[in-house]
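Cross-posting from the modeling subforum.

Setting up a comparison between two proteins and wanted a second pair of eyes on the formatting. Protein 1 (sequence, then structure tokens):
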Amino acid sequence: MADEIPLLSVRELKALEEASGKPFASVLVIKKLAGKTASNGNPFLVLELGDRTGSFGCTLFSDGAVFDTVKAADEGGVLRVEGRIDYYQGRFSPKLLKVVPLAEEELSAPGLIDNLVEVAPESATALWEEFQTFIESIKHDELRMTVRGVFEEIGDIFRWSPAAVSMHHAYRHGLLEHTLHMARACKVLLPLYPEVDGDLAMSGILLHDTGKTIEYEGTLATKRSRRGLLQGHVVLGYQLARKHGIKARLDAEYLERLEHIILSHQGEPEWGAAVYAATPEGVFVSMIDNLDAKMGMVQRALRQANKHDEFSERLPGLNTSLLTKPLGKHD
């Protein structure tokens, strides 16, 4: 089938109208894979497959032809997939008929990895250059030295890390993009809130998610590391800020408030915050973080939308589907 049918991207697959039953072939990476057990005791797999243009979920039962192959490939595995287009409860959920894992030497084919890995839409080089200007804009010497010290330690990893496993900015350079967007928003909003210390807020924004460089690992599929599971990015980021704050001889009160921004930036304990935001800067940063996280979900859904669908699939972070058809182009 793969020899007869051109390989299609996820976006191209989802753009096919009224295509139920149509055969297809694609090269995809296993982004998520979870083993579960049905009520009758039979095992099944819930997986997410994708490339740089998008992803989709499907369910594989143990009596299916591809179950064992997919299970052995695990997260991060690259598969040449053949199947038939199908939908479940209105969502794209194709039936997989054949999967062939790609050997490591096959992954070096020109352009293959670039087609599989989703990246931030903005140039990573330009983002990083602009990011440096925000570090240098911090007038408080010890705060600036603290921030600079953290990025001297983690800068290379920070530049390519995703900002999440799936919720927002969950792609290569996503963490850099998310943090820079927050810094831009901070610069614009600070004049409206003179009660907020600008240097402290900017420092907190630049450092708030640095723990994610330790929390996440993986090249083609992002998953949480051992330290990520045991401590989480909030605590890991707090540790980085404290280490370099002490090294920079940052005043104790400034250090305490900087640490508080990191510990509280998730907003709610149920979302991962260690404490509720209890300083002007803490509230300010947590609100900007929430804004950019949600707008990042919106931007990604709009990028991945196809012209045939009026709404996206349900976005868990927004608790709804998103209207993606451009204004003025409704049928």
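Protein 2 (same layout):
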Amino acid sequence: MVEHDIIHLRGLEFYAYHGVLPEEQRLGQKFIVDVDLYHDLQSAGISDEVGDTLNYAEVYAEIKGVVESGPYRLLEHLAEQIAETLLPTFPCDEVRVEVHKPQAPVPGLFRDISVEIRRGRKG
């Protein structure tokens, strides 16, 4: 496995109802997800066949399904659910999931609050 081959999905935006506060679960807000899929891309680079890589549309659909389900209270739990869905569904060795909550109910000025996890294939 060539560890530096990565497929990036960046800035996936969803509207969902996650959060600890009842208002967050009732009103909802925007969540942004970044995902890296660690997978050997050499075969696809040589063959030019989609069957030799990971189908980005299918990956997106799986992420969307997780984010728009729930509600989840914690970003950590949402990120974990995304990783637990992607790893058994796609033949990648590792995933990095970052979930951003730009309108988190935190007093103060900030651009973004996010949680990042990395999970590898078990076994």
